[in-house]
Design a protein that fits this description.
Elements: H1 2-29, H2 35-53, H3 57-74, H4 79-103, E1 105-109, E2 124-128, E3 133-135, E4 142-145, E5 155-159, E6 169-172, E7 176-179, E8 181-188, E9 193-197, E10 200-204, E11 210-211, H5 213-216, E12 234-238, E13 247-252, E14 255-262, E15 268-272, E16 293-299, H6 301-307, E17 320-337, E18 342-355, H7 357-365, E19 372-375, E20 378-381, E21 404-409, E22 412-416, E23 422-424, H8 436-445, E24 466-470, E25 473-476, E26 479-482, H9 487-502, H10 527-533, E27 535-536, E28 541-545, H11 555-558, E29 561-562, E30 566-575, H12 594-623
Antiparallel strand pairs: 1-2, 2-30, 3-4, 5-8, 5-30, 6-7, 8-28, 9-10, 9-27, 10-11, 12-13, 13-14, 14-15, 16-17, 16-24, 17-18, 19-20, 19-21, 21-22, 22-23, 24-25, 25-26, 28-29
Helix pairs in contact: 1-2, 1-3, 2-3
Length: about 625
């Protein structure tokens, strides 16, 4: 019964295709046909239409075969006809696809892990292209754009056009040159002034009102935000006439914030610009809360002794030692090699904290890595070839881990299968080992998966791991790992205070300590502090950050994103199936807006216009039948 219904459905569907195909062909060739042939085609078109409307698959099939036979005899398409038809179909399809993808919606695939865990590699998404305005196809402009519709926390799609982003060139449909589209979370709007503390963002808007949704909204609770990628940021050097690099300019958020020069007599001179040349702050690390964060990595006792021989004295014994690099400073700058050239570098504060097995267990409970593959015991980041001629020699070992693709998110290890489908691993899997060796490997190398990030003397290459204080606790991996009451942390705070007292005004030591949230004694937002040290978003610019700060190239690297570059908002995740399927953690969108109304009305209008045009054309052909009797089928 069901099979018969299916067959009838497809028979009618095929008959409809024949009807419209012959009807279009007849409209173009009717003038060249003999009168009898015209009458015969029109009559069988009418009979086929009646059979389709009556939902009679057998009668429709017979009429369709008759029509197809007539077309093959009287309306044979020439090579030119076929070429024109093909070009017309392709052109129409391309125009429709471009308009739909640029102005209505688009299906999008996530290529990297910059938005994990919200979005993961190979996720398939539906992106709305009319959330904020009407895009001009294939350009970085809008017919109309309403900034009031933009919400902090929106997961936004935008184009890399006119931005300093490497490897961003692509071709749409293999024909039209363009730029890649990026997916990030919109954090700051024009006029916002933002300050980073404890993995969270505090701020005021252009009117001076407190911004609470970046910390208090449901979508923001699991997110962790870091104000920089590298402590020095992006460095540009100027080549002197003698072939040296005596000047280095340091950029954060792609803004020049400091400059170091080698004086002709040999000493270093430093200048802090502040943001956009505004009144400079006293220390480089004062910028938008950078002082509240450190780069972090784990050292063995042997590595600690080799790299920092004097640091061992006064430290308690630990299974591993947490190294914290913090407070980049122009006052303790040096001239060092970055592997390619000698140039001025910022000074860094370095602090150490011994970790026990309890701390390592907490790290394991919250361990997060990139998506990686294991081949013959060696691990490499997904996207890098297992036998890459350059990087293969730097892939770390993961003893006992079977070959396959894996990811670890918040302490949960999963194996990754085709299409991004994941399956949680049993607790006895080797990836769950909490030995110091494995914790050190996964923590230090779990983002880049290159042994170049292992602790080496005279190397400033730190992994993408960060530490910060929140309410007295020391956070690693977005979790409190060393608690405020821990004797190890109390001893650490005491050592930092002593180092600060022993430093000089010429080269002050800035302790890595909990400076506290930017709040007044009454618990209100400290607006003056935020205005002085915060990051202000320029007019018609937006701050875009990835949910996975450790793997995200975002505004911290290439700066603010122009209003013109914003194209749409991610609405729905439809693959892979699982607990993340459906809507995403972000503010709820505006249901009724002018851009949405215009696009939907235009789409409905075009569909209705096409239907009416085709109906009128069919009626015109059917009108030629009149009261004529059915011609002789011998003409076939």
């Amino acid at each position: 019964m069901v099979l018969a219904a299916v067959r009838a459905f497809y028979a009618l569907r095929k008959s409809k295709k024949v009807f419209h195909s012959v009807e279009r062909l007849y409209s173009r060739k009717a003038k060249a046909l003999p009168t009898d042939a015209k009458n015969l085609v029109v009559t069988h078109l009418a009979l086929l239409q009646e059979a389709i409307l009556a939902k009679n698959p057998e009668k429709a099939k017979k009429s369709a075969q008759k029509l197809q036979g007539l077309a093959n005899v009287w309306m044979v398409r020439s090579s030119w006809d076929r070429t024109l038809g093909f070009i017309g179909s392709i052109t129409t399809a391309l125009l429709i696809a471009i308009v739909v993808r640029q102005m209505w919606f688009e299906l999008y695939t996530i290529p990297t892990g910059s938005m994990r865990p919200t979005l993961k590699e190979s996720d398939f998404l539906v992106v709305s292209k009319n959330e904020f305005g009407l895009n001009v196809p294939l350009t970085t402009s809008h017919f109309t754009f309403n900034p009031d519709l933009v919400q902090r926390g929106d997961i936004v799609v935008w184009t890399a056009e006119n931005m300093d982003i490497p490897d961003s060139d692509i071709r749409y449909f293999y024909l039209f040159p363009g730029k890649k589209q990026m997916v990030k979370r919109l954090i700051g709007k024009p006029g916002d002034t933002l300050y980073f503390y404890g993995g969270k963002i505090y701020g005021i808007d252009a009117k001076g009102n407190e911004i609470t949704d970046l910390r208090a909204s449901s979508w923001s609770q699991a997110l962790e935000h870091i104000p920089f990628i590298q402590l020095e940021g992006r460095v540009e050097t100027a080549l002197s006439k003698k072939g040296s690099f005596p000047t280095a300019t340091f950029y954060q958020m792609k803004q020049p914030v400091a400059e170091m020069k080698v004086h002709p007599l040999g000493w270093l001179e430093g200048e802090i610009f502040g943001q956009n040349g505004a009144a400079p702050v006293e220390h480089y690390s004062d910028l938008w809360g950078m002082k509240n964060y450190a780069k972090a990595r784990l050292l063995t006792l042997a590595e600690l002794t080799e790299l920092y021989p004097k640091a061992v004295a006064g430290l308690d014994e630990g299974l591993l030692y947490l190294e914290l690099a913090h407070h980049p400073s122009v006052k303790d700058a040096k001239v060092e090699s970055d592997g390619h050239q000698f140039r001025p570098t910022l000074g860094l504060g370095i602090s150490f904290l011994p970790l026990s097995q309890e701390h390592l267990d907490r790290l394991a409970m919250h361990m997060t890595t990139c998506r990686f593959s294991v081949d013959n015991g060696f691990a490499h980041r997904v996207g890098m070839e297992a036998k890459d001629p350059y990087y293969a020699s730097f892939y770390p070992k993961l003893p006992g881990v079977p070959d396959g693709t894996y990811e670890i998110q918040d302490g949960v290890a999963s194996q990754v299968y085709f299409g991004g489908i994941t399956k949680k691993l049993p607790l006895d899997h080797p990836l769950y080992k909490t030995s110091p060796e494995q914790i050190q490997t996964l923590y230090n190398l779990g983002i880049e998966f290159l042994t170049q990030y292992q602790p080496v003397k005279n190397s400033r290459l730190y992994p993408s791991r960060y530490a910060y204080f929140r309410s007295g606790d020391l956070y690693l991996l977005n979790a409190p790992v060393v608690l405020e009451g821990d004797s190890i942390l109390q001893a650490f705070n005491k050592r930092e205070e002593e180092k600060k007292k022993l430093s000089t005004s010429r080269k002050p030591y800035l302790a890595f300590e909990d400076a506290g949230a930017p709040l007044t004694a009454e618990g209100d937002l400290d607006v003056d502090l935020i205005r002085k040290f915060g990051l202000t978003i320029p007019e018609k610019q937006y701050l875009m950050l990835g949910d996975n700060h450790a793997m995200s190239a975002d505004s911290r690297e290439f700066g603010f994103v122009s209003e013109d570059n914003i194209k749409g908002v991610v609405h729905f995740l439809f693959s892979p199936p699982g607990e993340r399927f459906g809507t995403l953690p972000q503010p709820s969108g505006h249901f009724f807006t002018f851009p949405k109304f215009f696009v939907w009305l235009s789409a409905i209008g075009c569909a209705c216009g096409y239907w009416l045009l085709r109906r009128k054309r069919v009626e015109r052909v059917m009108g030629q039948r009149g009261e004529k009797s059915l011609p002789n089928d011998d003409l076939l």
